[in-house]
């Protein structure tokens, strides 16, 4: 399945997850807008290197807020959690309403998403190739689908 189709599927899953909760629906709309900006990056940004960087940026922002939505639905986000790494830590704690995220998956998220994002977004002159951006985005889609599946 193409990344575009996977993104559309994830948007549908997210809508189903937040149905009936106005605050979470509003946050989900923001996440879906980030995914739209990810998809539009290659059309709007003419420099291919910057376009791929924008794709990584928008997809990781969508992932970050998506994890927050999941935790907020169950009241499981700690007051100090404001990043992917901290949200993943919260997902590893025992909480009512969802199964615990495994340490193996948490490590893979750190290695394949967070560290890659940090490499591209925090180091001047560093840009992902299309292949590298596609890899990060495909991992985000995989891991967020997995997180949504943790709901009991």
Question: What does this entry show, briefly?
Answer:
With 152 residues, the protein is mainly alpha-helical. It has helices spanning 3-18, 22-44, 48-73, 84-91, 103-122, 130-148.
Structure keywords:
single chain; mainly alpha
Give structural notes.
With 152 residues, this protein is mainly α. It has six helices and no strands. It has one domain. Helix 3 packs parallel to helix 4. The longest helix has 26 residues. It is globular and about 45 Å long. It comes from Xylanibacter ruminicola.
Q: How large is the count of helical segments? A: 6
- What is the number of beta strands? 0
Mean pLDDT over the residues: 97
Q: Roughly how many Å apart are the termini?
A: 27 Å
> What percent of residues adopt helix (DSSP H or I)?
over 70%
Return residue spans where pLDDT drops below 50 for at least 5 consecutive residues.
none
Compressed to H and E, one letter per element, the order equals HHHHHH
Radius of gyration: 15 Å
Hey, roughly how much beta strand do the residues contain? under 5%
Number of domains: 1
Q: Describe the main β-sheet briefly.
A: none
Q: What structural category characterises the helix and strand content? A: mainly alpha
Coarse morphology = globular
């Amino acid at each position: 399945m193409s990344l575009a189709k996977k993104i559309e599927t994830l948007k549908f899953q997210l809508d189903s997850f937040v149905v009936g909760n106005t605050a979470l629906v509003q946050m989900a709309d923001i996440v879906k807008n980030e995914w739209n900006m990810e998809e539009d990056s290659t059309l709007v940004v003419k420099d291919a290197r910057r376009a791929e960087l924008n794709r990584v940026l928008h997809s990781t922002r969508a992932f970050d807020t998506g994890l927050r939505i999941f935790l907020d639905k169950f009241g499981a986000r700690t007051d100090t959690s404001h990043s992917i790494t901290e949200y993943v830590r919260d997902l590893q704690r025992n909480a009512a309403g969802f199964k615990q995220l495994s340490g193996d998956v948490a490590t893979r998220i750190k290695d394949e998403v967070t560290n890659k994002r940090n490499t591209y977004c925090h180091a001047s002159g560093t840009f992902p190739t299309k292949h590298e951006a596609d890899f990060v985005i495909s991992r985000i889609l995989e891991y967020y689908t997995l997180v949504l599946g943790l709901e009991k």
